[in-house]
Design a protein that fits this description.
The protein has 7 helices and 4 strands; from the N terminus they run αααβααααβββ. The chain has 217 residues and is mainly alpha-helical. It has a two-stranded antiparallel sheet. Strands 3-4 form a two-stranded antiparallel sheet. Helix 6 runs antiparallel to helix 7.
């Protein structure tokens, strides 16, 4: 029989943090030297073993030139990570303000068009508007068949098949919301001493071969 675990109250973590402070981020200098040596050796050994298995496949699949090109890119990416990228925070603050104002006007236009307020960022409210209030034909169910999907492909198909004027407004708001939340709003808050943002550069995480980045600081 699996024992039942009573979850902590919602404010338990906040109470602990308020009492004891945030837990420090663990780094290797906090680990006993012997354990660090064992870990580093095991890491290097595992890497060598994997390389011995995978390297012959590079030639077998005719990817040696691609591999060499990727290896040559590494020093460039390391340089970008260390140097950082200059960010014009004032520009992004203004851009974020413009996009948020545009989104506000778009929400007002949607409300005026359908007769009540709808949050375009809420999939549930958008689904209720499209398929309950307006009676548009559902395109596909969400995962688990919990309701009608309102993802980008669904909205585009509805735009093409129904030509309802609210669809382009929802698409416009969604596009601005994504751009603002991904780029303008975060970049407007860069507060490094030299005005540069530094991040981890990655070139193996996207199917299209584009660079991606994470952990901006």
């Amino acid at each position: 029989m699996i024992p039942q675990v009573t979850p902590d109250p919602p404010d338990a973590i906040a109470h602990v943090v308020a009492t004891l402070g945030h837990m420090p981020a663990a780094t290797l200098d906090m680990v006993p030297r012997g354990e660090v040596v064992d870990y580093a050796c095991a890491d290097a050994d595992a890497t060598l073993r994997i390389w011995q298995l995978l390297d012959p496949l590079i030639d077998k699949w005719g990817l040696r030139d691609t591999y060499n090109t990727d290896i040559e890119v590494i020093p460039l990416l390391v340089g970008i990570q260390q140097t950082g990228v200059v960010v014009d925070t004032e520009y992004f603050k203004q851009l974020s303000h413009e996009w948020q104002s545009d989104m506000s006007r778009t929400r007002h236009r949607i409300q005026k068009l359908v007769g009540y307020y709808v949050n375009p960022a809420s999939s549930k409210q958008v689904a209720n508007l499209l398929f309950e209030k307006l009676g548009l034909p559902p395109v596909k169910l969400t995962k688990g068949k919990t309701g009608e999907s309102t993802d980008d492909k669904v909205l585009e198909q509805l735009r093409m098949t129904t030509n309802h004027p609210v669809i382009p407004l929802l698409q416009h708001h969604r596009e601005l919301d994504k751009l603002d939340g991904t780029y303008a709003e975060p970049l407007s808050k860069v507060d490094s001493p030299d005005g540069r943002v530094r991040m981890e550069m990655r070139y193996t995480r996207t199917d299209t071969g584009r660079l991606s980045s994470s952990k901006p600081r």
